[in-house]
Amino acid sequence: MLNKIIKYSLNNRLFVLLGALLLIVGGLYTAGEMDVDVFPDLTAPTVAVMTDAHGMSAEEVERLVTFHIETSVNGATDVRRVRSASMQGYSFVWVEFDWGTDIFRARQVVSEKMVTLGGVLPEGIVPVLAPQSSIMGEILFIGLKADTTTLMELRTLAEWVVKPAILATGGVSQVTIIGGDQKQYQILADPQRMDRFGVTMAELAETGRGFSANSSGGVVRDFGNEYMIRGIARTNDLEELGETLVKTVNNRPVVVSDVADLVIGSAVKYGFASENGEPAVIMAISKQPNVNTLKVTEKIEKNLAEIEKSLPTDVVLNTRIFRQADFIEASVNNVRSALLEGALFVVLILFLFLASFRTTVISVLAIPLSLLGTVIVLHLLGLNINTMTLGGMTIAIGSLVDDAIIDVENVYKRLKQNHRKPREEREPVLDVVLNASIEIRASILNATLIIMVAFVPLFFLTGMEGQGQRI
């Protein structure tokens, strides 16, 4: 088979050169279009279930919430492991599925299991599925700080201006806001005034739950027209909110402002964020699996540049706190540099030992042709360029050049021997090249097979290590 390929190549040299040229052009174009990352995305099919349980201790969360969620998903189709974390006010459960499981099917399985918990969990506790994110973690941290704008206003800008714009960027999974003061409309009850009007805390709390809400009054039909009746009560004005009815006492309406004070305040803090030692609002951005980090980061920064124009003049938006794209570019560039330096040293050593510019060029041509062919194969398999694939290519250079040297050196030796013969005894050049290549073909093939066999056991590793070898 190989002999026929070599003979065909020798008889159709122009066709082979054209194919090599197309391979170079196609490989260069593909390399420019491929995704680049530090490591391959080893995100296992995992569904995260988050539950907000404010007011509960870690022990209560574990016993009343986490335990029931774990029990419901254990034994579900294709589930291989369930992990959880319970802390004060929060429960996190990670459901890991077998490799190869469709993530949308996995989320559907978990969603169906959550429906069965309606009558088991404490009242008001509703587990939700977290957005699907990459195992690579946060790709970008954004900081907002200002001189005169308050932390409450910064937090409001982050939640209602910056965050929606980031989530609208393709490839973004979720945005987590840390720090600042979360704005609240607070009802500060006055026990003495409540006692004077006979208002209980339960009545005031019930009124607060229905605060600032519109209501529907059905429709009115008149002369063939239909008019919708709506009660417009939604407002953010403290005086208007204070006029909300609590109850009627002795035919006199008692409103919220009669028994309590309404103020705008900040929610209880569960964390703190700072930038260079100064209070700030930090936004952590996570990407979706199998998404190009560099392209997503570029899109986010482009959107943020437009948003920054509409922010108050004293607000500083910093995207350089943590930027995973910088590490990716640095890591890949380091490996690329090592690859180029290694290729350069190979060229120099070949020239010194072979003492022939022509044979050196022929041997070295195996490097770009093989690497660009590898890039095309990676693209067809849906993989990306990362430090692992580049490292593998760097290691493969040794084997590539070794095979090329053996073949070219033997052909070169046989051609010289043929040239020393009398003219009438000389064989055709193409026959010499074919016979010289066939002569050492078995040795090259066996050496390459030995190297391949040495790496075969790696493909039988299990877990994340094995998955990393297979992709």
What would you say this structure looks like, in words?
It is a single chain. The protein has 471 residues and is an alpha+beta fold. It folds into 4 domains: 2-33 and 356-470, Up-down Bundle (Multidrug efflux transporter AcrB transmembrane fold); 44-132, Multidrug efflux transporter AcrB pore domain (Alpha-Beta Plaits, 2-Layer Sandwich), CATH 3.30.70; 134-182 and 271-328, Alpha-Beta Plaits (2-Layer Sandwich), CATH 3.30.70; 184-266, Multidrug efflux transporter AcrB TolC docking domain, DN and DC subdomains. The chain is built from 17 helices and 16 strands. It has helices at 2-11, 13-33, 58-73, 103-115, 151-167, 191-197, 201-209, 238-242, 256-259, 293-308, 324-354, 357-364, 366-380, 387-420, 429-439, 441-455, 463-470; strands at 46-52, 79-87, 90-97, 128-129, 138-145, 172-178, 183-189, 215-222, 225-231, 245-249, 252-255, 260-266, 274-275, 278-279, 281-287, 316-323. A hairpin with a 2-residue loop joins β13 (274-275) and β14 (278-279). The longest helix has 34 residues, at 387-420. The relative contact order is 0.12.
Descriptive keywords:
471 residues, alpha+beta, Multidrug efflux transporter AcrB transmembrane fold, Alpha-Beta Plaits, 4 domains, four-stranded antiparallel sheet, 17 helices, 16 strands, 51% helix, 21% strand, elongated, transmembrane helix, Protein HelA, AcrB_DN_DC_subdom, Acrflvin-R, xenobiotic transmembrane transporter activity
